[in-house]
User: Which sequence fits this backbone?
């Protein structure tokens, strides 16, 4: 009798161990959610963005590939310069800046065709109610082609953060919605506009994203920008700049045309 019951006991024990392993494995998988923004994978990316807001958390990191083409038109010739770069966007701290608690974002741009040519820019973001705001930028933002798509444009060269808040996003996002990005002055600044919902394919994957446009015309400069926002942040950005001002340094330079594209390669988002 003992010899007959012993195999059955071993079998029951084996079944129990297997069941426990399955349960533990299931629980472990649940801890590593493939969707860090919202566990309901049936929701669209745009719905997740509206529900959770822009992913602000320490350690969040985005890596982009950027392509820039600048054409200089002179009175007697035309010259085009192309640059490829890697743009890394990382949330490195939560701190007080200009009297507000904000997330510090470091943007580093590595130019692939120029040795020792990386640049880093600081910007501070805060979620205030239904608005994502860039409350301050560090100096030199205007040096960044495409990289400052992720920031407000600052013309300041001062060492301290530049206090000029801008409204990056105002939730809930929907096609046709618009808001004042900088100063609400219709004679100079245009609004940000949610133009459409697009299916965007980038190296990091396929996303459903809000396409948000920002256009600026000032003097003889025309600036057009598109950003695609989804539940994991910005997945793509493009900008086109036409400057007909010429140059006081080189009188032969009559026009500058810049075209840039930035695409998400990889990202790390914490809950």
Assistant:
């Amino acid at each position: 009798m003992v010899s007959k019951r012993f195999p059955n006991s071993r079998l029951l024990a084996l079944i129990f161990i297997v069941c426990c392993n399955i349960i533990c494995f299931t629980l472990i998988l649940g801890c590593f959610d493939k969707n860090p923004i919202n566990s309901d994978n049936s929701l669209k990316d745009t719905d997740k963005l509206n529900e959770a807001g822009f992913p602000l958390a320490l350690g969040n990191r985005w890596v982009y590939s950027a392509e820039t083409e600048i054409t200089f038109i002179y009175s007697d010739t035309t010259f085009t310069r192309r640059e490829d770069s890697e743009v890394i966007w990382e949330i490195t701290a939560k701190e007080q800046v200009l009297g507000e608690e904000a997330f510090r974002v470091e943007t580093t741009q590595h130019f692939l065709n120029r040795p020792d040519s990386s640049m880093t820019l600081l910007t501070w973001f805060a979620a205030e109610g239904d608005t994502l705001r860039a409350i301050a930028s560090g100096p030199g933002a205007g040096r960044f082609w495409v990289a400052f798509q992720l920031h407000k444009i600052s013309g300041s060269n001062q060492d301290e953060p530049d206090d000029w808040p801008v409204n990056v996003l105002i939730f809930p996002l929907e096609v046709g919605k618009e808001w004042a990005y900088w100063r609400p002055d219709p004679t100079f600044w245009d609004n940000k506009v949610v133009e459409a919902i697009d299916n965007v394919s980038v190296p990091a994957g396929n996303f459903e994203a809000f396409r948000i446009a920002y256009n600026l015309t000032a003097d003889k400069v025309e600036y057009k920008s598109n950003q695609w926002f989804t539940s994991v942040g910005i997945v793509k950005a493009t900008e086109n700049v036409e400057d007909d001002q010429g140059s006081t340094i080189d009188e032969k330079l009559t026009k500058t045309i810049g075209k840039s594209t930035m695409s998400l390669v990889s990202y790390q988002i914490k809950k």
Summary: Residues 1-40 have pLDDT under 50 and may be disordered. The chain has two domains: 1-32, 45-268. The radius of gyration is 25 Å. The longest strand covers residues 78-97.
